[in-house]
UniProtKB/TrEMBL annotation:
PANTHER family, sorted: MYCOPHENOLIC ACID ACYL-GLUCURONIDE ESTERASE, MITOCHONDRIAL, PALMITOYL-PROTEIN THIOESTERASE ABHD10, MITOCHONDRIAL
UniProt cross-references to SUPFAM superfamilies, sorted A to Z: alpha/beta-Hydrolases
Domain spans labelled Serine aminopeptidase S33: 41-139
GO molecular function per UniProt: hydrolase activity
Keyword hit for Ligase: no
Alphabetized UniProt keyword annotations: Hydrolase
UniProt protein name: Serine aminopeptidase S33 domain-containing protein
Keyword ATP-binding attributed: no
Length: 248
């Protein structure tokens, strides 16, 4: 795989990205928490876009993958702003937002901020408001105390850090308390065997999006939704969305 391109963000940090030229609407991939643009879903969609002459862009947030920065210093606001900068500076015209896990939350924040730039949304095991609903609310009181006192807690032995700053910032970016008036189609895929982000969390977005929304449960799929069958389902769903856009 060729080295990624980079562009500078505030503070001298750089965001790594890979881009494929093609026709619009373009596809903007928004990855998950502690994941990167080399994952199987991003790569599969990149291959699909290249075969189908679709513009496609994927990138790594601050502190993720091939971008610079310390992951522990990242916040939802920072990663949202990275995505907004990518949307504004590296893409043209309406974009199909494809968000996986945390990328589903970031996609929703983009849609609120730049509704005129959105052609459609495909959310894969979305994790809206996960810092509050799936991390903080699940922490035992003694772990919450550690976070409050020390400012950080390592998720599992050798795992990634969860900081007080991340949790506090997440509360400023909640999307399950506001309505998104979508003038574009939204498709959501979520696995029934997802133990990281239960499908009920993703389903909460249905009530918060005003418009054409379809929620599909994928039997037996876990949070990654990346088996060959699952990847094919993602491609089929994306292709159907884009055909709908082309017909308009």
């Amino acid at each position: 795989m060729a080295d990624p391109f980079t562009f500078a963000r505030d503070g001298g940090e750089t965001i790594a990205y890979r881009r494929i030229a093609g026709r619009g609407p373009g596809i903007l991939w928004l990855g998950g928490f502690h994941s990167d643009m080399s994952g199987s879903k991003a790569q599969a969609l990149s291959d699909w876009a290249e075969k189908n002459d679709r513009a496609f862009l994927r990138f790594d947030y601050f502190g993720h993958g091939e971008s610079s920065g310390d992951f522990a210093a990242g916040t939802i606001s920072r990663w949202r702003d990275d995505a907004l900068a990518v949307l504004d500076e590296l893409t043209e015209g309406p974009q199909m937002l494809v968000g996986s896990s945390m990328g589903g939350w970031i996609s929703t924040l983009l849609a609120h901020a730049r509704p005129e730039r959105v052609a459609g949304m495909l959310l894969i095991a979305p994790a809206p408001d996960f810092t509050e609903d799936l991390i903080w609310s699940r922490m035992p009181p003694e772990v919450q105390a550690v976070v409050q006192e020390k400012g950080v807690w390592n998720y599992a032995e050798g795992g990634y850090p969860i900081t007080r700053t991340l949790l506090e910032d997440g509360r400023n970016n909640l999307v399950l308390n506001k309505i998104l008036r979508a003038k574009w189609p939204v498709r959501i895929l979520h696995g029934t065997a997802d133990t990281d982000v239960p499908w009920q969390q993703g389903f909460k977005l249905v009530d918060q999006i005003e418009g054409d929304v379809t929620f599909t449960l994928v039997k037996g799929a876990d949070h990654r939704i990346s088996s060959p069958t699952n990847l094919k389902l993602i491609e089929i769903t994306l292709e159907a969305l884009l055909k709908e856009m082309d017909a308009c």
